[in-house]
Each structure stands twice: as structure tokens, then as C-alpha cells.
Design brief:
- The protein has two helices and no strands.
- By secondary structure, the chain is mainly alpha-helical.
- Helix 1 runs antiparallel to helix 2.
Amino acid sequence: MKLRLNRTQSIIFTVCYIAITLAIRFILEPFLLGYYLISVGIGLYFILLLWVLWYKKIINFSK
């Protein structure tokens, strides 16, 4: 069985994913002690994960 979300589910998942990843980054920011490149790297990693989900067609934004 292949996991695939429809358009509405993909939008809801993406909004929740972005909100959770931003919350994680804001929580971790004080512990990084000014090393902003680590925060940028974490953000790029989360974007890469989202891109992989889209590339593998698990999330689908087309009608």
C-alpha cells in the first residue's frame, strides 16, 4: 500500500509541518549561542525533507 495524501491533506500537513519546524527552531535558538548557521542548516534540512515528500509524491498539490 502506497501512502499518498490528497490536495487538502497535503496543504494541512504542510502548514502543520512548517509550524512545528519553526517552533522547534525558535525553541533551539537560545541554546545555539549565536551560531545562526546551525539554525539555517536545520531549516534547510527540514525543507529538504519536505521536498523529498513532494518528490516521492507522498504529498500532492495538484488538482
